[in-house]
Amino acid sequence: MDAQKFIEQKSLAMETITLDDEALLARLGYKQEFKRDFSRMELFGLFFAIDGIVQSIAAVLLFSIPYGGPVAMVWGWFTCCCFIVIVSLAMAELGSAAPTAGGLYYWTFMFSSPKYRKILCWLVGYVNTAAYISGMASVDWSVATQIMAAANIGTDGAFVATNGQVYGVYCALLVIHVIMACLATKVIARLQHFFVFLNLALFLVVIIALPIATPKELHNSAAFAFGRFQNTSGWSNGFAFILSFLAPAWTVGGYDTIVHISEEARDASRNVPFAMISATVVLSVLGWSEPASGLSGFQLK
């Protein structure tokens, strides 16, 4: 009887939250059209999984190593993430006040001057569209290259992928993306628990298992990891350091993802900003600790 009463109270609470979400959108002149299946943890998981801290860093080492080496990878990351968190806080406030599926497009229309709002909305809409098309393509391409690199390492260099083979894996990943996008919202939401676990496990492997497995003579000192500046880019040192911001900006810069699905989130005015800020901070910290611990080459006894 107590269990049944608990279930009834929970159902009533969920209905109240749903009504609050609909009422908030109605006050904004916006009609709810999507099902709300994402919980707070699942919103966090979506951002966390999309950014994929380990694989994202691996894909953008090209923008860290030449532009300052260890200093750029550690302190460049830290500096850029401070600014990223500030931007995330501002977007979280907007996401709390207007958690609409239109996200940036809707905000631009509401807060822009009536004279320029149409052209600005057009720009925001098309820039976002181009960004997500190119973003998905670049993510799948980086995954394809990493899969082929793993095959090369696993065969001690015997297997060397051709451009055609890499492109074939890339196309297969695009098809998988399409299939996953066709899944029900509830299924996609529940999958985030597994993806969070998978990404955390991969992170722990990199910062714990990898240093343990690395021969001691290949370890770097803490002075090298935190103080060695190596600029091989050809740019001046200051500008090269700024260019190293491309790595964290790419890895942690996807916080607007949660905004775009805010109409599919339960208790969106609270859960959307919470997930956005917490995921940004967690990814910033994990992303900083990965190169810092890996470069210093610590060894657990």
Strand content: under 5%
Largest sheet: 2 strands, antiparallel
Say how many strands there are: 2
Stretches where pLDDT is under 50 for at least 5 consecutive residues are: 5-17, 297-301
Strand order of the largest sheet: 1-2
- Mean pLDDT value: 81
- Helical stretch tally: 13
Proportion in helices: over 70%
Q: Report how far apart the termini are.
A: 54 Å
Using only C-alpha atoms, the radius of gyration works out to 22 Å
Shape annotation: globular
What's the order of the H and E elements? HHHEHHHHHHEHHHH
Structural class: mainly alpha
Oligomer state equals single chain
Keywords: Membrane, Transmembrane, Transmembrane helix, Transport
InterPro entries: AA/rel_permease1, Amino_acid_permease_CS
Protein name: Amino acid/polyamine transporter I
GO molecular function, one term: transmembrane transporter activity
